[in-house]
Amino acid sequence: MTQVFHPAMNPFSKVSILGAFGLLALAGWLIDQWYRSLYMTQVNVVRTQPVQFSHEHHTSGLGIDCRYCHTSVETSSFAGIPATEVCMNCHTLIWNDSPKLEPVRESFRTGKSLVWTRVHDVPDYVYFNHSVHVAKGVGCAECHGRIDQMPLTWRTHTLYMEWCLDCHRHPEEHVRPRDQVFNMAWTRPADEPDLGKQLVEQNHVEKMIHCSTCHR
Amino acid sequence: MNSSDSAAPIDLAALNRRAASSTGRTYWKSLEELAQTPEFRERVVREFPQGASEWDDALGRRKFLALMGASLGLAGLAGCNRQPPEEIYPYVRAPEFIVPGKPLFFATALTLGGVGSGVLVESHMGRPTKIEGNPEHPGSLGTTDLFTQAAVLSMYDPDRSQVVLNIGEIDTWEACVRDLRAAIEATRPRQGRGLHILSETVTSPALADQLAKILGDLPQAVWHQYEPVNRDAERAGATLAFGSDVQPVYHLDRAEVIVSLDSDFLTSGPGCARYQHDFADARRVRQTSPRMNRLYAVESTPTLTGASADHRLPLRAAEIVRFARALAGRLGLAPQGFSPASTVESPGRFDPEHNALHAAWLEALADDLQRQRGTALVVAGAHQSPAVHALAHLMNSALGAVGTTVTYIAPLEAQPKGASTDQTASLAALAEALEQDEVDVLLILGGNPVYTAPVDLRFGARLPEAKQSLHLSLYADETSAVCEWHVPAAHELESWGDVRAYDGTVTIQQPLIAPLFNGRSSYEMLSALFDSSPRSTYDVVKDYWRGQRMDGDFERFWQTSVHDGVVADTAATVRPVTAAAANSLRDTVWSEAPSAGSDEKRSAKLEIIFRPDPTIWDGRFANHGWLQELAKPLMKLSWDNAALVGPATADRLKLANTEIVELRYGDRKIEAPIWVLPGHVDDSVTVLLGYGRTRAGRIGTGIGYDAYRLRTSDAPSFDDGLELVKTGRKAMLAATDLHWSMEGRNIVRSGTLDEYRLDPASPAHAHHEESGEPQNDKEHNHGEPSHEQEVHAEVAHAEHEHASLYPPFKDTGYAWGMSIDLGACTGCSACVIACQAENNSPVVGKDAVMRSREMHWLRIDRYYSGQLDNPEVLHQPMLCQQCEQAPCEVVCPVAATTHSPEGLNEMTYNRCVGTRYCSNNCPYKVRRFNFFNYHPDETPLTAMIYNPDVTVRSRGVMEKCTFCVQRINEAKIAADVESSRVGHQVKVADGGIVTACQAACPSGAIVFGDVNDPKSRVSQAKAEPTDYGLLTELNTHPRVTYLARVRNPQAALLAAEEQHRTGPAVRENIY
Q: Which chain B residues have a beta carbon less than 8 Å from that of A136?
């Protein structure tokens, strides 16, 4: 019986076998890249909002504390989006005729909520809790980035599980003294290399990496 | 597929032989298990019955594959989509106290039969989602019964009526009020003659006051109260015994010996949650207090109270009075010259002269009661005859129970002036007035009398005789259909109100949400129709209480009362009672009623017993998915009612389970499926009310049979003269007693108090100790060791070795565990509904239940032991055992089920791909698989009921008990936040985490906590000698352990019962 394939076909078979693996790997890499693309993660993408609210102006410019608006960040899972009333505390007096603030005044007049688009949105099966992160010394900027430098708000991290786990596995690299949580500009002092470990010890920060920490 | 497939007439003798055989205590879940039918064996071996995974539509395999292919392709595409943007709607003006993400709890009360139980309702930003008990309320003490727990779903029921109807056409509230006011005005010259108001039982002081004022204004008007399950007999009995209508309040915590005369005081009726609590507390055997009360139950239809009893005697319902007379006679209460008429001997008849067991019962009871004077208690069942109630009262008086174990208070319900306080008589009077064309205006406030009225009153046919009629109710139901006007009622969670508890304590009800469908309360309805300037419900209730509290700061009183859920010092005052002399009751209580006819006639026919359904009650919960799907305690049926018969009757009449029979009673007949219930008295058939609804809603319409069609006003509870005719057809019933069966390896364990005193560990090991006759067994089995013995050998071996390939689970910090006391569990199933409400478990429907697809994370397994005619019953709450070495975890290919450092066996839904390997490998069969998306018709309304702290699972995902991980996380986070505030580490306190099932359990059978803390309640419970784990021979190290049940039988009676059993049966092994 003669050979079906001539020996000259050998390179072809090698190439096609290896090529199949290569193609699979390529597909995998492409899918991976796709999921990490800015399109998918929405990192650095500014969302359309009813009012062009600038965190930069209000915090860096005016020095308003985060908690003036996000009142429940230390007590609840949800940090809280300020009621229209909170905006109007100031804006009845200043910029009270600015056309940019008309939606705010309209909301206040009509009693209808301003409809904001969520920028930092984890899936519905993830139960994130602000209060415990603040209590353990995770700064706002750790997840939200330098929001005090954002004229409009965007996401600086993917909010993917690998990103969450990175901190949950190595909390010492991400915690800060509790009094610096709301300080956007805080940086790890170079002369205290063991600060993270000390804080982890001191604040009883555990490596919470089991599933039911977030999924339930 | 279901038990119905293999249903054949039962062979009582063979089953009893099996039950009597085998060594030691043996438990069985169903007749099928006892008979070891092939179907049962399959249930044990297979996780799901054959066909459970099949597509349940008429869709063929090809079509299915085609659809699957297409959806897979589309699913791939869908995966490329990024997360859709979400919107946030903040408040415009933030309400005080509401913190987004944190629930608030409001105190209110929910009623059944007019009697309130105090609750705290969890509200997430204005959405009530979960009912908890109110610890400050005497009827609750922090726990809830089944119906209270389920109330939140009925509020969100999309089938509730949503518009005002005039003869079926949509109309307006204003037109309704205008029309009815005119009709009422027309009766004013006649002082209201022709005006009739029909309400359910009213205990509300404000509503009673409103009605009293209306009747004062229009003295010829009549107010009727009617509920199909009422206390007419109790009222008549109290009047016989004491000369006035008083209502008993039991103090079970003080009772040492309790006799139940066909009563189900533990799980139905006013105050049942409190009674369960007190009863369980008084029989909690611990090393530190090895004492317990004793309960004797004499009953016709098996109840959960009977299942909790230390001794239980089945008697026909009509025989209970004979028993009560004989017992009272033994206590020296009989009038002079009274001698009980002797009866022909037949099963189910009470005959102490010929029946040694009955004689022993009398002897034992009289002895025990006499010895426990002052701490004894006799309780009569609500549906028993007035004579039984009277005898119970007389015995209580004679035993010195009045003032200690029972006190009497004025009736809770308001008394309508001018109409009979007897509800059935009152409704009959209304029906008569309708017949005579004397009703000009009929206002029906709640209830569904057209469906529930005794059939001989022909209420539905007569109601249109009323010239003007109104029905205010939650549903546009059978009654609404024949009324001129229908107005949607506000649910109790949507309305203000006030209501009395079982002991008279008042709760001001407060709304949790504005009425979803513009419902109106009875208060508002009456005010709109009768007040010159209509007031809101809030004003009606508040004005009434303002009038009551002249002294002091009313606003403060009001705020405190609403906040606490209890109006201070409103418990009813104890009424002194004097028992009537025995001779004066000669003709009423002590005379044998000849009405039942000759003995020949009786023996030819059966007794019919009417009972409210255990989950649907009188039919008001017919459209309630949770309650329909809940397996009815004891009978373990869901989605249907059945005619219950005892095994001996089934044997005699050659009846098989699920066989449809025609029930002929009087000149009426209905068809109903048979359900053989071990322990049911012979020659009686129990029919369950509440089914066969014709206008209940999408869920409740057209399921089951309507037992009201046999119920007449002269015999609302039981009667002789039922005939049973076979039809040769079979019904498909969704019974769950075979679902998730485990191989019988000593799963439930029990012992007696005497055994416990000798060796406290013996109840937990009863099975091993008693297998002391291996020689006999071997002989019988022709020398081969039985399967059971092999298992025992394995068990004994494994328990000593506990060798494992896996490293032991190390835990530091918290280690969550649970202890469940089988002795305290009554099987009431409040925990099952609590779990469903807390964890967003779906309702799957009857068809799916028949395929073993029910999604309850917590189920109550019911086990029988002993003879079929009167078996011992044990309930075992079965949930994920949270094994330290969990067999499910190691087989998951995607690590969707893993172990937390605190010992939780976690289930991560978003990882699960639905292989079901875990479920296949679970020896406890506690994992549930979403065969479908059970939330397909979600609307914004129905989605409002979900607990926002728990994921709503989709199709193809495995799920199971998580130990309420959302509550654990909540408490731990709160402790962590507190730690950062105070500056040192704060641990979660013992009792700081309460699982949903634990919170609901009225008897406190479930304890949850940190087993690493030796002082925690759960550690202490686990340290009890009666503690045992399930299937521990498998080395699973379950974190849930059980406390074996300890019973407290009386030695002499136990011996007599032993004697009574059909002699030394042939020993043969079940397995």
A: 976, 980
Coil, strand, or helix at residue B321? helix
Tens of pLDDT, residue by residue over B964-974, are 999 999 999 99
Within 10 A of A94 (CB to CB), how many other CB atoms are there?
8
**Contact, B508 vs B545, CB < 8 A?**
yes
Contact A39 B83 (CB under 8 A): no
Chain A nearest-CA distance from B494, in A, is 23
Q: How far apart are CA B565 and CA B561, in angstroms?
A: 6
Is A118 in Cβ contact with B86 (below 8 Å)?
A: yes
**Residues B198, B430 contacting (CB under 8 angstroms):** yes
> What is each CA distance from A123 to B82, B144, B557, B815, B883, in whole angstroms?
11, 34, 46, 29, 29
Structure ipTM: 0.91
CB neighbours of A169 closer than 8 A, spacing ≥ 6? A207, A209
Q: Mind listing the pLDDT tens digit for each residue in B6-31? A: 456 667 777 777 766 655 567 777 77
pLDDT tens digits, residue range B342-377? Answer: 555 555 678 888 788 888 999 999 999 999 999 999
- Residue B786 reports pLDDT greater than 50: no
**pTM to 2 decimals?**
0.90
Give every CB contact of residue B854 below 8 A, 6+ residues apart in sequence.
Answer: B629, B631, B638, B736, B739, B844, B848, B928
Joined together, the tokens standing for residue B1007 give: 């304890």
- A125 and chain B in contact, CB less than 8 A: yes
Lateral strand order in the sheet of B115-124: B104-112, B115-124, B127-133
Read off the tokens for B382.
């609500």
Backbone angles phi, psi at B995, to 5 degrees: -70, 160
Shortest Cα–Cα distance, A77 to chain B (Å): 6
CA distance B679 to B302: 6
> Are the beta carbons of B906 and A215 separated by less than 8 Å?
yes
Q: A-B interface: how many C-beta pairs under 8 angstroms?
A: 130
Report CA-CA distances (Å) from B1067 to B160, B719, B743. Answer: 57, 40, 21
Phi, psi (degrees; rounded to nearest 5) at B454: -55, 140
Distance from CA of A118 to the nearest CA of B (A): 5
Query: Residue B132: is its pLDDT beyond 60?
Result: yes
C-alpha closest to that of B741 among B31, B146, B51: B31
CB atoms within 10 A of CB B938: 12
* pLDDT tens for each residue of B70-120: 666 555 555 556 788 899 999 999 998 899 999 999 999 999 989 999 999
Contact check, Cβ <8 Å, A127/B949? yes
- pLDDT score, position B746: 78
Which of B91, B99, B965 is the closest to A76 by Cβ?
B99
Residue pair A184/A148 in contact by the 8 Å Cβ criterion: yes
Residue closest to A140 by CA, chosen among A168, A175, A189: A175
Q: CB–CB of B962 and A212 under 8 A?
A: yes
CB contact under 8 Å between B901 and A210, yes or no, is: yes
Crossing angle for the helix pair B537-548 and B522-530, nearest 10 degrees?
90
Q: Are residues B206 and B541 in contact, defined by beta-carbon separation less than 8 angstroms? A: yes
Which 10-49 residues of chain A touch chain B by CB within 8 A? Answer: 34, 39-42, 47
Asked if A72 and B101 come within 8 Å (Cβ–Cβ), the reply is yes
| Closest chain A C-alpha to B161 CA, distance in angstroms | 29
Buried b (16+ CB within 10 A) or exposed e, B988-1007: bebebbbbbbbbbbbbbbbb
Select from A76, A81, A212 the Cβ nearest to the Cβ of B904: A212
Q: Other CB atoms closer than 10 Å to residue A106's CB: what's the count? A: 13
Model pLDDT, residue B789:
46
* Helices within A113-193 (DSSP H only): 130-135, 140-144, 161-169
Q: Are B82 and A42 in contact (CB < 8 Å)?
A: yes
